[in-house]
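YM 10:42: histidine kinase sequence, as discussed on the call
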Amino acid sequence: MIFRKFGRRIERPLRRFLPRSLFGRSLLIVFVPLFVTQLVAFQLFYGNYLSLVSRRLADSVVAELAMTVRLVARFPDERDWILDQARREQQLVVTYGEMSDAKIQRTRNVLGPMYDDLQDAVRRVFHTSCRIDWHATSDNVRFELPYRGGLLSVEVPRKRLVTGPVWFFLAWAGGSAIILFGIAGLFIRNQVRVIRGISHAAEQFGIGRDDGPIHPRGAREVRKAAVAFNRMQARVNRFVEQRTIVLAGVSHDLRTPLTRLRLSLAMIPNAGVIEAAALRPDIADMVSDIAEMEALVNSYLTFARGEGAEAPVETDLSALLRRIAADTERAGGRITHIDIPEGIFAVVRPDALRRALANIAENARTHGGSMSMTLNRRETEIFICVDDDGDGIPPHLREEVFQLFSRNRATVSGSGLGLTIARDIMRAHGGEITLLDSPQGGLRVLVRLPTPD
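YM 10:58: structure's back
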C-alpha cells in the first residue's frame, strides 16, 4: 500500500511531461532503454577501458623519459648517444633549453582522459606540472616541463598516448543509436497507423458512416483487433438489417389474420337476437387468428430479444442436448439414434443455445420422419449433428433458408425465423451452422462451437 501511494505521487507530476499519444509513448519506451544502454556503454569505454589504457600509456612514456634524463645526469659525457638512442628506440625527442625557449604558450586540451593522465604522470615522477601541445605536429605531441633550472622539451608520437580517436567511438555510438531509434520509429509509426485506422473506423461506424471492413495488417495482435472489429461491424450491420426486416415483416404477416378478424366482425349482425351456436364457428376462427398472431409476435420477440442479456456460464452440453431430445420426442418426434457422451462442458448462454438447438430439432421433427442426434468434441471444437430422413434441401437453396421469413421447406407454416435465430445465436457464440447431406437421406445440420482448452 505504501509503495502504491508513493508510485501515485510520482506518477501524477510525470504525466505533465509524458507524451499523450500512443506514438509518443511508444517512442519514449524505445528511447529510454536505448539512451541508458548508450550511457552504460560510454561509461564502460570512457570510464574504464579508455582511462585504464590512457594511464598506462602515459606512465610508460613518462617512465622512459625519466630513465633517459637520469641516464644523461649519470653519464653526461654520453648525453648525445643517450638522447639518440631514446629517439631511435623509444621515439622520444628530448631537448634541453632555457626557460625562455618555451614554445608552448597556451595548452590545448583533447577529447578524452589522455591530457589529464599525462599531466598526472609528469606530476608523480617529476613533481611539477607541464605544458602540453597536443597538436604540435600532425603526428607528434609536445610537452614542456621545468627541470633543474632549465626547460625540458619532449616530442612523442601521438600513437604512443592515444589508443584511437574518441570522437569515432562517440560518432559510432550516437550514429547507431539514431539509426536504431529511427528504424524503431518507422515500425512504431506503422503499428500506430493501423491502430489509428481502427479507431477512426470505430468512430465513423459509431456515427452511422460505414466505410467497409478494415484491411488487417501490422502485428498479430493488431490484426486480431482489426478482424474482431470487422466481425463486430458485420454482426451489427446484420443485426440492424434483420431487425429492420422483422419490423417490415410484422406488418406483412399480421395483415392477413387482422383482415380475417375484421371480416369476421363485419359479418356479425348488428341487430336482432343472435344465437350463440350460430356464432361459435366465427368465434373459433377468430380465436385461431388470434393464436396465429400471438405465435407470430412471440417468434418476432424471440428473434428481436436475441441472447445479449444472458450471461455465459459453464454448461453441461450433454444434459442440455438430452433434454432437447426428450422434449422433441414428447412433441411427437421419432429419434432413432442418440450418441451423446457424458461430461462435455462449454461456456455458453444456456437459454439461447437451448432455443437454437430446439429450433433445429423442431425443423428436423417437422420435415423428417425420423431423426438422430450426435455430440462429440475434437480438440478445441464441439460438434452437434442433427440428421433427418426427410426430403432434404438442394445445395443451391441451403444458404437461402437462413434468410429471414424463408420457407423453402414450405409444406409447414411458420414465421421463417427458426434457422435465422439459430444461426444468429451460434455466431454470437463464435460458432457456425452448416447444412449438409445426411447419411439417412435427408438433411444434416452441423453445429460447430469453439471452446478454449
